[in-house]
Amino acid sequence: MDERGLHRLIGTIIAPERLEDDCAIIPCGDLLMVASTDMLHETTDFPAGMTDWQVGWMAVAVTLSDVASMGAAPGQVLLAVGLDRPERLAGIMVGARDCCAAAGAELVGGDLDAHRELTLVSTGLGTVAPEHLVRRRGARPGDVIAVTGPLGEAQAALVGYDRHRKELLEPQPRTKEGEILGRAGVSAMMDISDGLALSLYDLLAVNDCGFSVDTGRLPLPAGVPEDEARELALYGGGDFELLFSAPPDVLPVPGVEAHVIGEVIPERVVLADGEPLERRGYLHEWTG
Amino acid sequence: MDERGLHRLIGTIIAPERLEDDCAIIPCGDLLMVASTDMLHETTDFPAGMTDWQVGWMAVAVTLSDVASMGAAPGQVLLAVGLDRPERLAGIMVGARDCCAAAGAELVGGDLDAHRELTLVSTGLGTVAPEHLVRRRGARPGDVIAVTGPLGEAQAALVGYDRHRKELLEPQPRTKEGEILGRAGVSAMMDISDGLALSLYDLLAVNDCGFSVDTGRLPLPAGVPEDEARELALYGGGDFELLFSAPPDVLPVPGVEAHVIGEVIPERVVLADGEPLERRGYLHEWTG
């Protein structure tokens, strides 16, 4: 059973509409609070050679990326650390703090535990005015589809293109962009940590329309042969760019690098260059 | 280095006043939001024979206990699950949902990951009016010290008193009591998951006064010889009762079972029956 299969099981136990978005949505006075939690651990998520500082940075970046995808301003982060060796703690905490500071968030608490495998769980909170909240649901035929930056860079590093190691190991959550896009009136948004293809299918699952991308318009990782680069951009995991739909007249949005890659269509399919796009990418798998 | 030593290190990296309480405190309109995150994993936290339902229940209970200790009403819980075997997920999620429901909270989201050791991280959110917030700091000489129920039951089960297995495996977070005590005006509060002795030393660290308990007044686990029961009550971990101080005229508080066990004193010491209390209990230890 794969991760999305287990998610469907969870949808039978807790309110399924709670599972649609990158964050939970919580009332908070006149605002909405969004909250996301993400687990990362050594064997699955931290490539060899990563420094403790980078581990801490990444743990915070992935959850702030979820906050950004809702159009929210990042606020607070809690970090639970399952620590394998005590000497790693200082580097991890400084990395986490620095990522918070870069996004204008504050590291406000956490938990500390001994664990035989380094395991980090960050929880990110942010706030947004109700009228600026963006969800995965909301795309409309005629909207354009766009992304905030090059795709496939993290995967390119994993397959040996060392010039992209920094993008792999120090992902930049698009917090500024997410907030600006929420205010600009984009219609649907998510981050694409599991690859563009799976993300488009995630949007398909909660919208009553489809998504058609033109692979010739994908912003590709530099220094990689074009065919391989396109493959990485479609199916590679580990990028933390935002994927969004918007009425065409919303773009360009000042302050946001946005690459239009396709359009929202009435048919409930995901197409690449007019053909059905393969549904694959990064998924946790259980063999049990 | 032990857990509290590493906490001091963290206090050099993030604002140390953020580490004083069981929860972080976050502005939320006219209210305050409190947020806590707790990691539990198989080898350290789940005794043999525990069901998946109990694992899910406990993961939520420990974080709702933190929310309660601030005087806050429980609101939302996020649960990150590092899953060793897919067939465990349903039981865990139902246990988590049931614990939320029992406390009037809602399970609103989470994360799912494959992990070789079952690892759960729950994040609990709650809200409280600023005037009802209770922190660890705030005890005053002349206040009484009290707890919400018997101490040492979980540890009694761990050393073989099977009649207390339910208290060990299905801890009841004192959410109702925490909220009532906050409104009643108690002066300081925390939960005592690491044992009474360590908790009193935690209070000592952030207050300008001391704590004197009378071991003859401790509510003890039933069915255990008295000397052993007193030892378990002072030093045993795994209980999730609330420990609080309050001006004497605040007690009794309708709706809360409270056992007065001592008083707050001007001297910055922790005493049991007039003698310094040993500073020991449940601590995670790193051997690195």
Automatic annotation (TrEMBL), chains A, B:
Pathway: Cofactor biosynthesis; thiamine diphosphate biosynthesis; thiamine diphosphate from thiamine phosphate: step 1/1. ATP binds at residues 110-111, 136, 193. Gene3D superfamilies: PurM-like C-terminal domain, PurM-like, N-terminal domain. Pfam families: AIRS, AIRS_C. Its EC number is 2.7.4.16. Mg(2+) 5 binds at residue 194. Catalyzes the ATP-dependent phosphorylation of thiamine-monophosphate (TMP) to form thiamine-pyrophosphate (TPP), the active form of vitamin B1. NCBIfam families: thiL (TIGR01379). Reaction mechanism of ThiL seems to utilize a direct, inline transfer of the gamma-phosphate of ATP to TMP rather than a phosphorylated enzyme intermediate. This is Thiamine-monophosphate kinase.
